[in-house]
């Protein structure tokens, strides 16, 4: 598997178990979640089934220029340049509790940018959740005080 979730997506039983594990973790950790927010684009694959299981809404955090209506955007550094993420300005209300999901945490730049977007909308980030963490790249250290959970870790 390493850092590719494609085999999980091809296997319906494995994907169901993945969502079961993530759902179990979130139910045990947080009595109230208002939204699951997924990062473009693989967070869109695990976020909606997880949100549906938890009976909460799903919001999109996308690359710049992909969302309609007024948006909040943040620029962040990548290993090879810069990028921008956006969320719709009315996606979450101040004080709402959000879990941000993605498939992989590498250097942590994208996840930190997503947290900044939530902060700007005055939402509370309960946790950043990923399937795979590449520990060698120390991305979770960038998240500082924000709780972080990864199902699998690789050095």
From TrEMBL:
<dbReference type="GO" id="GO:0044209">
    <property type="term" value="P:AMP salvage"/>
</dbReference>
<dbReference type="InterPro" id="IPR005764">
    <property type="entry name" value="Ade_phspho_trans"/>
</dbReference>
<dbReference type="GO" id="GO:0003999">
    <property type="term" value="F:adenine phosphoribosyltransferase activity"/>
</dbReference>
<comment type="similarity">
    <text>Belongs to the purine/pyrimidine phosphoribosyltransferase family.</text>
</comment>
<keyword id="KW-0328">Glycosyltransferase</keyword>
<keyword id="KW-0007">Acetylation</keyword>
<keyword id="KW-0963">Cytoplasm</keyword>
<keyword id="KW-0808">Transferase</keyword>
<comment type="function">
    <text>Catalyzes a salvage reaction resulting in the formation of AMP, that is energically less costly than de novo synthesis.</text>
</comment>
<dbReference type="GO" id="GO:0006168">
    <property type="term" value="P:adenine salvage"/>
</dbReference>
<comment type="pathway">
    <text>Purine metabolism; AMP biosynthesis via salvage pathway; AMP from adenine: step 1/1.</text>
</comment>
<protein>
    <recommendedName>
        <fullName>Adenine phosphoribosyltransferase</fullName>
        <ecNumber>2.4.2.7</ecNumber>
    </recommendedName>
</protein>
<keyword id="KW-0660">Purine salvage</keyword>
<comment type="subunit">
    <text>Homodimer.</text>
</comment>
<dbReference type="GO" id="GO:0002055">
    <property type="term" value="F:adenine binding"/>
</dbReference>
<keyword id="KW-0597">Phosphoprotein</keyword>
<dbReference type="GO" id="GO:0005737">
    <property type="term" value="C:cytoplasm"/>
</dbReference>
<dbReference type="InterPro" id="IPR050054">
    <property type="entry name" value="UPRTase/APRTase"/>
</dbReference>
<dbReference type="GO" id="GO:0006166">
    <property type="term" value="P:purine ribonucleoside salvage"/>
</dbReference>
<dbReference type="Pfam" id="PF00156">
    <property type="entry name" value="Pribosyltran"/>
</dbReference>
<feature type="domain" description="Phosphoribosyltransferase">
    <location>
        <begin position="8"/>
        <end position="133"/>
    </location>
</feature>
<dbReference type="InterPro" id="IPR000836">
    <property type="entry name" value="PRTase_dom"/>
</dbReference>
<dbReference type="GO" id="GO:0016208">
    <property type="term" value="F:AMP binding"/>
</dbReference>
<dbReference type="InterPro" id="IPR029057">
    <property type="entry name" value="PRTase-like"/>
</dbReference>
């Amino acid at each position: 598997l390493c850092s590719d979730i494609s085999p999980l997506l091809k296997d319906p039983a494995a994907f169901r178990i993945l969502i079961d594990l993530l759902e179990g973790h979130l139910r045990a950790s947080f009595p109230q979640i208002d939204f699951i927010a997924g990062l473009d684009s693989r967070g869109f694959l695990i976020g909606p089934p997880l949100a549906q299981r938890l009976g909460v809404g799903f919001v999109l955090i996308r690359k710049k220029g992909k969302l309609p209506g007024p948006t909040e955007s943040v620029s962040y550094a990548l290993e090879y340049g810069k990028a921008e993420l956006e969320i719709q300005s009315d996606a979450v209300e101040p004080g709402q509790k959000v879990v941000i999901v993605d498939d992989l945490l590498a250097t942590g730049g994208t996840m930190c940018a997503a947290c900044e977007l939530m902060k700007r909308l005055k939402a509370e980030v309960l946790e950043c959740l990923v399937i795979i963490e590449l520990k060698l790249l120390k991305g979770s250290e960038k998240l500082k005080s924000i709780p972080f959970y990864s199902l699998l870790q690789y050095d």
